[in-house]
Amino acid sequence: MSNTRHPSSALTTLARDPLVWALTALMLLIFGMESLKPLFVAVFPALERPIYEQDTFLALVIAHARIVAVSSSVSILIGVAAGIFVTRSAGAEFRSLIESIVAIGQTFPPVAVLAVAVPLIGFGEAPALIALALYGLLPIVQQTIAGLESVPRGARDVAKGLGMSNGQILARVDLPLALPVIIAGVRTSVIINIGTAAIASTVGVKTLGSPIIVGLSGFNTAYILQGAVLVGLLAVVTDLAFGRLGRYCERWRFAA
């Protein structure tokens, strides 16, 4: 029997995919916000400029995604390394200390980090990246530890029996088996950073927070709505994409 899928079946599956709908809505708003001007004029008749025009929404989304990608990459590198370190015998005694430090990083508001960092290093991306990277560490560290601790001892024993070194066991057994759990932590961290990155506009960084900040200062509800909806849709698209990646990693782990 042929395994070839009928085109209509593939289209039906695609039409039911929430990721496709969310991504389509995001693209339509990015490139078609100007076409909604009559709607905003009708809803907010008192506003002279109902559409944010200081930057294109495409440029804002790209800038927002860039700062999230950079800060999340730093969080992933540090968080996964810290999680690996405290689950090894050499770093087990530092586990409570590292967990306390990353917990403080999440409970300390990013706005407060910006307030401390700006006088020291000035306005721009640097203080925003520091705040976002610190804020995104906790879920990655926690899930890395949980993932590595969930690896069956029997799998490590078999690897040792095959003559693998500790480094080989980590790279070929521990991390692959823990990957779905680690991805879940990365997913949470990135979603948090997408929402939090809007505050970077308070220190002169161009993000989707720019129309929100301008709208708040100028009492322009339309600007606030435009920025907030795009931030929300970007978070939804990213969350759905990570959900799909997590399911793929889970299937790959069982296959391996």
Bin the helical content. Answer: over 70%
Largest sheet: none
Indicate the radius of gyration in whole angstroms.
22 Å
Strand content: under 5%
Count of runs of 4 or more consecutive helical residues: 12
Low-confidence region ranges = none
- Class from helix and strand fractions: mainly alpha
Distance between the termini: 27 Å
Q: What is the CATH first-level class name?
A: Mainly Alpha
Q: How would you characterize the overall build of this protein?
A:
The protein is built from twelve helices and no strands. It is mainly α and 256 residues long. It has helices at residues 7-15, 18-32, 37-43, 57-87, 95-107, 110-121, 125-135, 137-149, 153-161, 166-196, 209-217, 221-255. Helix 4 (57-87) crosses helix 7 (125-135), helix 6 (110-121) runs antiparallel to helix 7 (125-135) and helix 11 (209-217) runs antiparallel to helix 12. The two termini are 27 Å apart. The mean pLDDT is 87. The protein is flat. The chain has a single domain (56-255), classed as MetI-like fold (Orthogonal Bundle). The longest helix has 35 residues, at 221-255.
Gist of the model:
With 256 residues, the chain is mainly α. It contains twelve helices and no strands.
Any descriptors?
flat; MetI-like fold; 0% strand; mainly alpha; 12 helices; 256 residues
